[in-house]
Specification:
mainly alpha
C-alpha cells in the first residue's frame, strides 16, 4: 500500500495516529472474514433461537472479539515481516518500513488486540474464552509459516476460517459440524486468493529465501491450484445449503459467489498479473458480503 501524500515532518494528531494504525492493519480487509463470521452467527442463532438475530449483546461482543483478533494478527504480521517488507519493492512503502510507525507502537497494537479479543470472548461464554488463546496463538503463528513451510498460503486461509466457527461458538457455547463446513469453505476461498496474491512476489521470494507456493511450484501451477481450491470452496458452500435445507435466496448468493470466483480466476494469467489488485480487494469483498446478505435473507423469509 502506498503512503503517498503524508507529510512526515508535520505533527500527527491523535485521530491521525489512530488512522495510521487502522491503515497499517488494513482494516477494510475485514470485509473478507467478517461477513462469514456473521453467517456463522446467523446460522447458529437460527439453530438455537429459531431466528437469525442473536441479540445486541452477542452481536457486539462477537464484533469486539473479531476486531481484537484481526488487530493482533495483522500487527504481528507487520512486525514479523518487517525485514521482507523493507526489501520488497511492492511493500517497502508500508507503515513500518517507511517509518510512519515504530516497531514498539505496532507491538502495543498487538498487545491491545490480544486484550480486546480476550475481553470480547469472556463476555460470550466459557468455551469462547477457553478457545480464544488458541485462536490468538494461531493468528500470530501463521505469520511465521513462510520461514519454514511453503504451505504458508494455506495457513492464511485457515486463519480467516476461524471466524465463522468462532462466531458459532460465541452464540451457542458449543462446537458442531455445521460451522466446520463454513470454515472449510472459507479456508479454501481465502487460501486460494492468497495464492493468487502471492504470485507477483514469485521472484522476490526465491531470491530472498521466502517459502511460498509460487516460489515452490511456479506461477502457472499456483494459479491452477487456486482454481481447484475455489472449486472446493464453492462445493462446500453448496453442501452447507443442502445440509441445512436453506431457502432459495441462499442459492442465488451461491451462484453469484461461484460466478465471481470464476471471473476472478479468469482475470489472472501466468503472463499477466496486472489485475491482481482489483481481483484481491474488490471481487473477494463482493463474494463475502453478498453471500452474507443472501444467507440472512434465506433465514428470514
Amino acid at each position: 500500500m502506498q503512503n503517498a501524500g503524508i507529510n512526515r515532518s508535520a505533527p500527527i494528531t491523535v485521530l491521525g495516529r489512530i488512522s495510521l494504525y487502522l491503515n497499517s492493519i488494513r482494516i477494510w480487509e475485514s470485509l473478507f472474514a467478517l461477513p462469514f463470521a456473521f453467517i456463522g452467527m446467523a446460522l447458529a442463532s437460527q439453530t438455537v433461537n429459531g431466528q437469525p438475530w442473536p441479540g445486541w449483546s452477542i452481536f457486539i461482543w462477537i464484533n469486539v472479539a473479531m476486531f481484537g483478533a484481526r488487530t493482533l494478527g495483522m500487527s504481528a504480521n507487520r512486525l514479523v515481516h518487517a525485514r521482507e517488507d523493507a526489501a520488497n519493492p511492492r511493500t517497502r512503502d508500508r507503515h513500518l518500513p517507511s517509518g510512519l510507525l515504530k516497531s514498539w507502537e505496532v507491538a502495543v497494537m498487538a498487545g491491545l488486540g490480544l486484550a480486546i479479543l480476550l475481553v470480547g470472548a469472556s463476555q460470550l461464554n466459557v468455551l469462547a474464552l477457553l478457545l480464544s488463546p488458541i485462536a490468538a496463538a494461531y493468528v500470530v503463528f501463521y505469520s511465521y509459516a513462510k520461514y519454514f513451510t511453503w504451505l504458508c498460503n494455506f495457513c492464511l486461509g485457515w486463519a480467516l476460517a476461524i471466524a465463522p466457527t468462532a462466531a458459532w461458538i460465541g452464540v451457542t457455547g458449543q462446537l458442531s459440524y455445521e460451522p466446520l463446513l463454513i470454515s472449510l469453505a472459507v479456508a479454501m476461498w481465502a487460501g486460494g486468493f492468497d495464492l493468487i496474491y502471492a504470485c507477483p512476489d514469485f521472484q522476490f521470494d526465491r531470491e530472498f529465501g521466502v517459502k511460498s507456493v509460487p516460489s515452490r511450484i511456479g506461477i502457472a501451477e499456483t494459479l491452477w491450484l487456486a482454481r481447484t481450491m475455489h472449486f472446493f470452496s464453492i462445493s462446500a458452500l453448496l453442501a452447507l445449503g443442502l445440509l441445512l435445507e436453506l431457502a432459495w435466496p441462499y442459492y442465488i448468493g451461491w451462484v453469484i459467489a461461484a460466478l465471481l470466483l470464476i471471473y476472478e480466476n479468469a482475470q489472472v494469467r501466468p503472463g499477466d498479473l496486472s489485475r491482481i489488485g482489483a481481483v484481491f480487494f474488490r471481487i473477494n469483498g463482493y463474494v463475502s458480503v453478498q453471500l452474507m446478505g443472501f444467507t440472512i435473507l434465506a433465514l428470514v423469509i
